[in-house]
Specification:
271 residues, alpha+beta, seven-stranded antiparallel β-sheet, 16% strand, elongated
Length: 271
C-alpha cells in the first residue's frame, strides 16, 4: 500500500475497535446475585379511570328465634309435719282452719296453734263477724279473723268456673306464700288448701293447669255420710276427687252479695 491509503485503513481499524468496546454485550448470561430484580408495572394512561376494588359484604346471619318455653311439672306445698289441727267440736271447722292457716304461715318457730280453748275463742270471734241465719261462723267471719290476727289480708271470692277457681287459688298461694280457705259442701264446711301441683309455674304461665290439690280437712278422720270421707292431712287430691266435696255455694245459704260459685277465702298481696 501507498502511504495515504495505509493511514486511512489504520484509522478505520482503530475506530472500529473503539466502537466495539463501548457497545453492550449481546447474549449476556446474568449470574446469581442477592439483589432482587425490580420489575416495573405498566402505568395507566393519562386520564384513565382506575376501577375501585370489588368488595362483597358478608351476608347478615338470619336470627334464630328463641323457642317458646314449654310448661313443666310444678309443685308447691306449705305443709310441714305438725301443722294440722283437728276441730274439737263439729261446729268449729272455721276456727280449726284458722289455726291450721297460722301453722302453715308461721315458719319462725313461734309456736303451733292447736289449743282447744284458743280454737273456741277463734270460733266466737269469727261468729261475731258473720251474718248467718244458722248462728255459726261463715266465710266472711273466717276472712276477717284471719286478717285481724295478722295473717291477712284475706277476702272472700266466688268464682263461677271450677277450673278458674283452682287456678285462682294456686296463683294466690304462689304469689303470697299463704294458704287458701276452701268453702266445702255448698257452704257448710271449711277446708284449707296448703299447696298444689300443676303443669306450668303459675308465676310464668298464665294458662297453667292445676293437676292436684293439697288439702287439710279439720274434721279428719270423721268425714261425712253425705259428702264422703275426710282425706288424711296433706293429701293430694285430683281435681276430680276434690270436686265431689268442693261444690258451688248457693246464695241462700247465708246472707251475702256474692253470686253463686265456688267460694274461696283468698289471701291478698299486702298493700
Amino acid at each position: 500500500m501507498t502511504g495515504a491509503p495505509a493511514r486511512l485503513l489504520a484509522r478505520l481499524v482503530a475506530l472500529t475497535m473503539l466502537l466495539t468496546a463501548c457497545a453492550p454485550a449481546i447474549g449476556f448470561v446474568e449470574t446469581a446475585t442477592d439483589r432482587p430484580i425490580a420489575t416495573l408495572s405498566a402505568r395507566p394512561a393519562a386520564g384513565a379511570v382506575t376501577p375501585a376494588p370489588h368488595w362483597t359484604p358478608a351476608p347478615t346471619p338470619t336470627p334464630v328465634p328463641t323457642p317458646p318455653a314449654v310448661p313443666q311439672a310444678f309443685a308447691l306445698n306449705l305443709y310441714q309435719e305438725g301443722d294440722f289441727v283437728p276441730q274439737y267440736t263439729f261446729d268449729w271447722c272455721v276456727a280449726a282452719s284458722i289455726q291450721i292457716a297460722h301453722n302453715l304461715i308461721d315458719d319462725t318457730g313461734g309456736g303451733t296453734w292447736a289449743d282447744r280453748a284458743q280454737q273456741g275463742d277463734l270460733w266466737e270471734r269469727a261468729r261475731a263477724r258473720s251474718s248467718n241465719s244458722f248462728n255459726g261462723a261463715n266465710p266472711l267471719g273466717w276472712a276477717e279473723v284471719l286478717t285481724d290476727v295478722g295473717m291477712g289480708p284475706y277476702v272472700v271470692v266466688s268464682i263461677a268456673d271450677y277450673e278458674d277457681a283452682l287456678q285462682t287459688a294456686a296463683r294466690a298461694i304462689t304469689e303470697t306464700g299463704r294458704p287458701v280457705g276452701l268453702v266445702m259442701w255448698s257452704g257448710r264446711h271449711a277446708w284449707v288448701m296448703s299447696g298444689f301441683e300443676s303443669l306450668g309455674d303459675p308465676g310464668q304461665f298464665p294458662e297453667f293447669s292445676v293437676t292436684g290439690v293439697r288439702v287439710l280437712d279439720p274434721l279428719y278422720p270423721h268425714g261425712s255420710g253425705q259428702w264422703g270421707p275426710s282425706p288424711a292431712p296433706n293429701s293430694l287430691l285430683s281435681p276430680e276427687q276434690l270436686a265431689t266435696q268442693f261444690v258451688v255455694r248457693e246464695p241462700r245459704r247465708w246472707s251475702s252479695d256474692l253470686p253463686a260459685g265456688y267460694l274461696l277465702v283468698l289471701p291478698q298481696a299486702a298493700a
